[in-house]
């Protein structure tokens, strides 16, 4: 089986749904990157939503592979790489911004009442 049209209807629906969910998460991450106000807020959108978008596309690729009877080793390695490196790189970027004393437009947290 070389094309998606040769997959059974159930597999096609599953792959389409996973691609749609992955695309929506990627779109939300991209919109968040453009619309949010400061660096710290912009950092949150691509590291969370876009990572889930890539995860949806990788799951769709795994589903196609499973329907064709092959192992999804490459997709698992890509998923492992993305899900490990995205939070680490976001943490390093946030630490660098804190070190540079980048300003934030987020309101300060309210004071906690004493017990």
Short key terms for the protein model shown above:
single chain, 115 residues, mainly alpha, 3 helices, elongated, sodium:proton antiporter activity
Strand and helix map with partners:
Layout: H1 9-35, H2 39-67, H3 73-99
Strand residue percentage = under 5%
Uncertain spans:
none
Q: Give the tally of β-strands.
A: 0
The span between the termini is 66 Å
Helix-strand sequence: HHH
Q: What is the CA-atom radius of gyration, in angstroms?
A: 19 Å
* Number of helical stretches of at least 4 residues: 3
Write a compact overview of the structure shown.
72% of the residues lie in helices and 0% in strands. It contains 3 helices and no strands.
Q: Your description of this structure?
A:
The chain has 115 residues and is mostly helical. It has one domain (7-99). 72% of the residues lie in helices and 0% in strands. It starts with 8 loop residues before the first helix and ends in a 16-residue tail after the last helix. Keywords: Membrane, Transmembrane, Transmembrane helix. This is Na(+) H(+) antiporter, subunit G. It holds the Pfam family PhaG_MnhG_YufB. GO terms for molecular function: sodium:proton antiporter activity.
